[in-house]
Amino acid sequence: xxxxxxxGPRRCPCTSCPYRRDVPSGLWDFHEYDxxxxxxxxxxxxxxxxxxxxxxxxxxxxxxxxxxxGCHDMAENxxxxxxSLDLDYPAILGYRSPVALFxxxxxxxxxxxxxxxxPGERAQRKIRQLLAQRDRCGGWDGRE
Length: 144
Known about the structure:
Layout: H1 30-34, H2 43-49, H3 66-71, H4 78-82, H5 89-93, H6 105-114, H7 121-137
């Protein structure tokens, strides 16, 4: 990513975003879902949860996770306040998701973990797509 480009959210949360209400349960590993709730609450709560890292999109395209930005109050986000990266603050603070998101990281995590030991067909299909994409590209390339 060029150093002059500011970092902001994607236009829309990706189709595998754990914050999206329409993403099937069981798509990601437990440790990915465990990260979500740490960003809920005020700055002291985030600090206590160890949530001081920016949450980037799982597509690894250099964008902030649009679901994370849309779900949490970025004006009160510890990670956004602490970073030394060049963030696009107007895009982050003014972001509104065009798709329905869970109301909190805890809610998104609970949904995601619900079927993690027995993911449904939609989740299995999406997992296969993500794995095939990773294998084709030697890692995530930012496209779905």
